[in-house]
Structures are given as structure tokens and as C-alpha cells.
Design goal:
Blueprint lengths: L1 E5 L4 H10 L6 E5 L5 H12 L3 E5 L2 E5 L7 E2 L1 H4 L9 H7 L2 E5 L12 H8 L3 E6 L2 E6 L7 E3 L5 H11 L5 E5 L5 H12 L3 E3 L5 E5 L8 E3 L4 H14 L1 E6 L7 H10 L2 E4 L3 E6 L11 E2 L11 H8 L5 E5 L10 H5 L4 E5 L2 E5 L10 E3 L3 H13 L5 E3 L2 H4 L5 H6 L11
Parallel strand pairs: 1-14, 2-13, 5-6, 9-10, 17-18, 21-22
Antiparallel strand pairs: 2-4, 3-4, 6-8, 7-8, 10-12, 11-12, 14-16, 15-16, 18-20, 19-20
Length: 412
């Protein structure tokens, strides 16, 4: 690989920020919004709830003056778990929401209990019936203390969007610290919310009576950026990843350097290099952790990189219980991987033994791992069900072709 690839806005930031436009009536302007299956789904959901929107390139304007509903139907929610994020803003604005239990990738349970237990502390009564969550504010939203046993990004975001309209003070302990949560806090603050503790696991929200529309930019997608850095290691050569925030990628960059890659870090870009003379990288162990630890959303891609490294890599997955579904497909290329509970043991093999084959994507990040493995393998790798990939990567095939990679997206 040679050249540059630009990173799009973060899917996992765009979705809660789009949901937040429901909190107060008016017109919002969001810049750097990626055009993905998931963002299109969220925009459809906003439209069903009565909002209107327009897109001009990567800028989206949402008008939420007229809300006509408070129900997120199964037909949309089944394709994207993040649809549950409309719960918080609907409770904050109209005091009621009916949302289908979330669907999306089958990588783990991702229970909604954290959301509902947190809402309960704010005076919300909820029930589960017929596959739907029905939540209603009893009287008015009131501040409370919320504790998460495990940091949950979407639960933290949902609670923030409700708490900004709650009377009094809300404290969220063991909150998620991901940059995407920080991006939402920036938007809510621009709307008039009072939130302290950004970037920490202790958030204090002082409720306000009124919020107003805001203009905000979506942060760069750290998972997309990380995927391209990993891809440079798999394919070899030198790749400049632009329009990113390297401070969000510290855990990955340290692991790539430990594996033998050269990573140059600048304010808004990284240059990743690996020798193309056939010298293999070194096997490195990883354990997925909440931010700022190694991201679970890069585990599958990193495993693909480890296929041709010298030695044995042990990959511990601690976030989602079903996130090794890509292993069976990687084995079709010749990978030597053994699953042992929540760990995968990857034994590096000579690159010539990694040979392209037809494979099938099972979820979003698994599909990206198959692209990475295909770049490392000889021959042709044909990946089916790439609609998973399109949920989180904007124009990936086009971007990779700009670097000299032989990647083509074909119609089914």
C-alpha cells in the first residue's frame, strides 16, 4: 500500500448526536456525518418520529420542530442496535417513548438493563411487552445517582440525554469515557446543558429547563482509522491516514509498534509503514478493554494482522461474548486459530500459506477483518454479505484502491 486515505466522521459519534436533535425543537447542523447504512437508518428513524432532514455532502441539517410520534418500530431497530438511543431524548422532551428491543450485529447480548435501571433513578417507569420497551416519566424527570457495573457507551449516552432535562443534579458513576461520549457532551453543552467530568468516569449533570439547537462537528472515526493502520501492516508499504485524531488510538499504536511497524504520529494524521521485503511482524497479545484500553471494535482486524506474524498471539475478548465469529472464515484462508473460551490463540504462518478464498461477513468488524486478511493473502478473497461493512465504513473499496490495493466492490 502507498499513498493517503482520509478518515470519515465516526459512526459511533454520529448516531447519538443525531438522536440528540430530538431533545429540543429547532434546526441543528451536524458536520462530518458519514454516509453509512447506520446513519441512514437513524435519519429514517428521526423522520418516522416527525423530524425532517437534508444532507449536503457530509453536512446534515435536522429540523425537529414537529415531533409526531414517540415509537421506534422493529422494522428499523432490528437492523441497528443504536436505535435505542432515541429513548433518552424522547423521555427528556415528551416524557414517553416506545422502542423496539434492539437488533443489529449478533456479537453479544448488549443488555438494555443498564439503560432502564438508570432511567428508573430519574423517575422513569418502564416495561417490556411484545418485544418493545415502553418508558414513561412519572410526574417529571428528577436527578438521581446512577452506577454502571460495567461502563456502557450507549447507556451513558442515553442517560446523559435524559438527565440534561431532569430537575436537579444527576451523577453517573463508572460512566463510559470513549471519545464518542465526549463528542455528545460537547453537543449537549452547546445546546445549553450543564455537564461536568467529560473524559472521566464520573459525570455530573445539572438539569436545565430549556435547551436549544446547536451546530457541531462529528469527531473522526477512530475505528476506521485503526482499521487502515492495521491494513497497512497486513499489505506492507507505507500509508498516510489523514483526518484522524491519533490521541484516540494510543492503545492500538503501541501494539502496532510492538509488532514491528513504524508509526509516525502528527496532530491529525498517522503514517504507518511496514517493510515489503517479506520480513514478518512479531506476534503480540491484546486484551480488549473499555476506552482508553484496546478497542473491541479493532480486535477482529488485529487478529487478521497476526495471521502472518512470527510467533503466537493470544487475543482476549472481554467485552462481547460472541465476537470470534470471524475465526471460522479466517480459517478458510489458512489461518491457524484455536478458540479457548474468551481467548483466541493465533499461530503465525508463512505468508505464502495464507491463500484467498470465498468468505462470508458475519458482523461489521468481522467484515473488516476479512478485508485485512484478504490484503495479506495471495490470490483472490471474495467477501459476501458486505452490507455489514457498509454499516460502518464509508467507501472503503474506493479508499483502498487509492492506495494501490486491488479491491473491487461488485453487485450481488
Amino acid at each position: 500500500m502507498q499513498g493517503k486515505v482520509a478518515v470519515s466522521g465516526a459512526k459511533n459519534a454520529a448516531l447519538p448526536l443525531l438522536a440528540a436533535t430530538l431533545l429540543a425543537p429547532g434546526t441543528y447542523t451536524l458536520h462530518n456525518v458519514p454516509d453509512l447504512r447506520d446513519t441512514r437508518t437513524m435519519l429514517k428513524l428521526l423522520q418516522i418520529l416527525g423530524a425532517s432532514w437534508e444532507r449536503d455532502g457530509s453536512t446534515v441539517q435536522v429540523n425537529s420542530v414537529n415531533l409526531t410520534g414517540a415509537e421506534a418500530p422493529y422494522e428499523l431497530v432490528k437492523t441497528m442496535r443504536a436505535s435505542v438511543l432515541v429513548l433518552g431524548p424522547l423521555l427528556g422532551r415528551v416524557g414517553y417513548a416506545r422502542v423496539s428491543l434492539p437488533g443489529g450485529c449478533a456479537i453479544g447480548a448488549r443488555p438494555i438493563d443498564y439503560h432502564l435501571n438508570g432511567f428508573q433513578q430519574l423517575g422513569v417507569v418502564s416495561s417490556l411487552e411484545g418485544g418493545y420497551v415502553e418508558a414513561r416519566v412519572q410526574g417529571e424527570l428528577t436527578g438521581g445517582k446512577v452506577w454502571f457495573d460495567i461502563p456502557s457507551v450507549t447507556a451513558t449516552e442515553n442517560l446523559l440525554m435524559a438527565a440534561v432535562k431532569a430537575k436537579g443534579e444527576t451523577i453517573i458513576q463508572n460512566a463510559a469515557k470513549e471519545p464518542e461520549v465526549g463528542n455528545l457532551i460537547d453537543m449537549l453543552t452547546a445546546m445549553g446543558a450543564e455537564i461536568k467530568g467529560k473524559g472521566t468516569d464520573f459525570l455530573t449533570v445539572t438539569g436545565v429547563k430549556e435547551l436549544h439547537p446547536a451546530t457541531i462537528s462529528i469527531i473522526p472515526d477512530r475505528i476506521e482509522a485503526g482499521t487502515y493502520l492495521i491494513a497497512a501492516g497486513a499489505a506492507g508499504g507505507s500509508l498516510e491516514v489523514t483526518d484522524c485524531d491519533p490521541s484516540h488510538l494510543t492503545a492500538l499504536i503501541e501494539k502496532l509498534r510492538a509488532a514491528g511497524m513504524q508509526i509516525e504520529v502528527y496532530a491529525d494524521r498517522c503514517i504507518a509503514s511496514r517493510s515489503v521485503d517479506g520480513t514478518p511482524l512479531r506476534a503480540v497479545d491484546i486484551t480488549t478493554m473499555p476506552y482508553p484500553g484496546f478497542p473491541t471494535d479493532l480486535q477482529a482486524q488485529f487478529m487478521a494482522l497476526m495471521l502472518c506474524c512470527n510467533g503466537v498471539s493470544i487475543i482476549h475478548e472481554t467485552i462481547f461474548e460472541n465476537r470470534f465469529m470471524h475465526v471460522a472464515e479466517l480459517r478458510r484462508l489458512g489461518a491457524e486459530i484455536v478458540i479457548d473460551g474468551g481467548s483466541a490463540v493465533v499461530t503465525g504462518i508463512p505468508r505464502e500459506r495464507l491463500i484467498g478464498a470465498p468468505v462470508m461477513a458475519t458482523d461489521l468488524r468481522a467484515s473488516a477483518s476479512l478485508v485485512v486478511a484478504g490484503l495479506a493473502a495471495s490470490g483472490t478473497t471474495e467477501i459476501s454479505r458486505i452490507y455489514h461493512l457498509e454499516r460502518g465504513y464509508e467507501k472503503m473499496a474506493e479508499k483502498l484502491r487509492q492506495t494501490g490495493a486491488a479491491v473491487e466492490q461488485v453487485a450481488d
